[in-house]
């Protein structure tokens, strides 16, 4: 590089309100990037001196520059290799997310070692780490869905798979205790697995057994698993689900605070919405789901008495959780048996359009009709899932990271808007409009907090030597624009850099400011993350 000035930076961000998340230097005006790392953070003039002929100069025009967002709770591993589009992580980068942790809620498609090795060959556009899903591990050990009491050999087999996963770089284990097969697991099984994970310095992330009716017992179980295994506990997408359960938010926070005061390392994550997103099986009472969906569909639902009990369970849940209103359950994408596609509509509206009166029983019948064979369809309870009070209360907890709980989406496919806008929504709605928390606090919960919860030592803070993951956004306009009906890119996210590579660039004249190409064989700028090995780093 003959003409680039000696010591010149690869890129600089000038005239920014730099929020570094570094207690030693919280605020600055500019930063420089060299070799994929932050090389300088400071005043405008000192950084301007690092500009050479080849330096990419990003004029921030007073906008905020901060570390790239770290999303500790995603499902972005699912469908990852379906096509090259998925490796671009466009719906993540467009919201400023530069690092994702996948494998949550007990779900994985393959062993962490295999997943990470495949990504080594096809580098993703964001930095990518994964947990080992307990449901996956149970399946990999050949344990039938519905089996509650495992043999000693079965437990040992699972511990062996977790051992391997941790050695291969998983950040910990995840559970999906409302799902098949997690809902059949005993606490002792989870403690045995979490103990292996803890020995490797990993953490225990849990989609708990209940987010509503049995929420308090579920929180206590997660805390007990942390206490008995020694693993740090990550409560996944914390919420208080169901109108009949909203009073529990205080008690949930009280239980977490008490455990923390007792020395148990409990933290968590949250997506900032009042509605959840999952497929219709969430409405099926657990005792009918445990044996697996094939049994549910081929046996239980064919027996009239059993079918009646299942329907009664669905009607009861909709009555207590959603005030009995089928209008509050939104379908974001479903093609019915008659070939008709429904998007961004409610269960009640589907029934009405079919000429059926939307009674609770008919709503339940429709949910049974929607039961997916795979993870294709989804419904969402709207306003009456979690209430805004709970969203704000949880958002105010300094140890709860912001997350998407989202999926890696082909661009603008219909889905829960959290996959397109969870992080900008916090900045637009809960920081700017509702003033629930200050900007700096919100950003900590998107950057340095999740980075430290994952044990990442070189991300989440803008400081010389750290990896150059950077977001530049406009405080005045940042916000979510996706809805159920119409997915959209968020507003106000102007520049996103991953390991120093510009992936979102507001300077491009085209409407689409996304800069990475599709289908190229070169791979993205993200790094494949493996859990930092404590003993290895201690030996250095
Ligand atoms: Zn979950």
UniProtKB/TrEMBL annotation:
<protein>
    <recommendedName>
        <fullName>Amidohydrolase 3 domain-containing protein</fullName>
    </recommendedName>
</protein>
<dbReference type="InterPro" id="IPR032466">
    <property type="entry name" value="Metal_Hydrolase"/>
</dbReference>
<dbReference type="Pfam" id="PF07969">
    <property type="entry name" value="Amidohydro_3"/>
</dbReference>
<dbReference type="InterPro" id="IPR013108">
    <property type="entry name" value="Amidohydro_3"/>
</dbReference>
<dbReference type="GO" id="GO:0016810">
    <property type="term" value="F:hydrolase activity, acting on carbon-nitrogen (but not peptide) bonds"/>
</dbReference>
<feature type="domain" description="Amidohydrolase 3">
    <location>
        <begin position="416"/>
        <end position="503"/>
    </location>
</feature>
<dbReference type="InterPro" id="IPR011059">
    <property type="entry name" value="Metal-dep_hydrolase_composite"/>
</dbReference>
